[in-house]
């Protein structure tokens, strides 16, 4: 649905459906072309809609690459409704002095909650036992029925100790867990002490942890960070949780590890090539699957959309957006 032309206001494309208050806010400041039909725009369709725009408010499913950017001579800002931004060619934006922004902070707790949902679900085999009941197979109680593993007093290993990793670690205190983490840099001593967390090497974390949770951004450096070699270092009783980005885990290697008992189970919210996940996951009972819903609470998604809109409006108004990814796009201006 295209917004009404408003002379003198900058044009913005909103690539996917957003909330009414987001559009109302944008329309106060901009001429809005909104894809409220929510049919994903790709290739030529996206380029054609974006060509005359000064701002794009996009989602993580939109590929904002160099070819698209070249089609948009007046583009000034790309505002991603996500904390991750591997869907945006940031160097290409910077070279054209286009500001790129994301939505950090507002989704930390919801995403941490989802990581714990996957952890608890995989540990206590929730998807398996629910199917068991729904199929009408429950005939009575047995002592050794559906044995899971304890989360309390276990060792939690977090790979990536940014805001979301720290939110996951805070929740571990309620389960009296030992917390290990692996991060490029050590977090501040005060934070480390508050979280009762110890920094270790990746190998040490994999060897010692009962639960391994991934919270690193996807990049060439983190592509297949967890593959067959890393999975083989984990305990056979361990559970892997990926609630960050597809591609950080080698999904083919993970399927093999789950099949042959290299690790006990997994909880996954993200996948390589999503939504076309490896179909072999669907044949496994020891994996909890979710369709990339880490931040999907109403309050959080509303906050994400509004944060992206405010980033776009700030940039269009000549201010530095609060969540600027590429400051060089601003500092390089003459």
Search tags:
334 residues; alpha/beta; Rossmann fold; 2 domains; seven-stranded parallel sheet; five-stranded parallel sheet; 12 strands; 14% strand; disordered N terminus
Description:
It contains 13 helices and twelve strands. With 334 residues, the chain is an alpha/beta fold. The chain has two domains: 11-106 and 298-331, NAD(P)-binding Rossmann-like Domain (Rossmann fold, 3-Layer(aba) Sandwich); 108-289, Rossmann fold. Helix 1 (20-29) packs parallel to helix 12 (298-316) and helix 5 packs across helix 7 (163-172). The longest helix has 19 residues, at 298-316.
Brief characterization of the structure:
The chain has 334 residues and is of the alpha/beta class.
């Amino acid at each position: 649905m295209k917004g009404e032309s408003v002379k003198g206001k900058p044009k913005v494309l909103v690539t996917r459906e957003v909330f009414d208050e987001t559009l109302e806010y944008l329309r106060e400041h901009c001429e809005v072309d909104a894809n409220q039909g929510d049919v994903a725009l790709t290739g030529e369709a996206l380029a054609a809609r974006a060509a005359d725009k000064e701002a794009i408010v996009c989602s993580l499913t939109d590929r904002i690459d160099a070819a698209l950017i070249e089609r948009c001579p007046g583009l000034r800002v790309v505002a991603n409704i996500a904390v991750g931004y591997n869907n945006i060619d940031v160097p290409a934006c910077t070279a054209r002095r286009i500001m790129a922004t994301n939505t950090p902070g507002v989704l930390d707790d919801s995403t941490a909650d989802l990581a714990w949902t996957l952890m608890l679900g995989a540990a206590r085999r929730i998807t398996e036992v629910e199917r068991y009941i729904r199929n009408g197979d429950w005939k009575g109680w047995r002592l050794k029925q559906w044995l899971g593993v304890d989360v309390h007093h276990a060792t939690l290993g977090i790979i990536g100790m940014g805001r979301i990793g720290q939110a996951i670690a805070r929740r571990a205190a309620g389960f009296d867990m030992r917390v290990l983490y692996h991060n490029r840099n050590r977090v501040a001593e005060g934070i480390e002490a508050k979280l009762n967390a110890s920094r270790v090497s990746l190998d040490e974390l994999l060897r010692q942890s009962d639960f391994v949770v991934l919270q690193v951004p996807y990049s060439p450096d983190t592509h297949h960070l967890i593959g067959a070699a890393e999975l083989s270092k984990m305990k056979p009783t361990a559970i892997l949780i990926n609630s960050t980005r597809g591609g950080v885990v080698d999904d083919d290697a993970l399927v093999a590890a789950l099949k042959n008992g290299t690790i006990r189970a997994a909880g996954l919210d993200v996948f390589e090539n999503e939504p076309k996940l490896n179909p072999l996951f669907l044949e496994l009972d020891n994996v909890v699957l979710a369709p990339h819903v880490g931040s999907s609470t109403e309050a959080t998604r509303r906050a994400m959309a509004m944060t992206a809109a405010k980033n776009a409006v700030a940039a269009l108004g000549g201010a530095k957006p609060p969540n600027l990814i590429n400051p060089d796009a601003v500092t390089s201006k003459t």
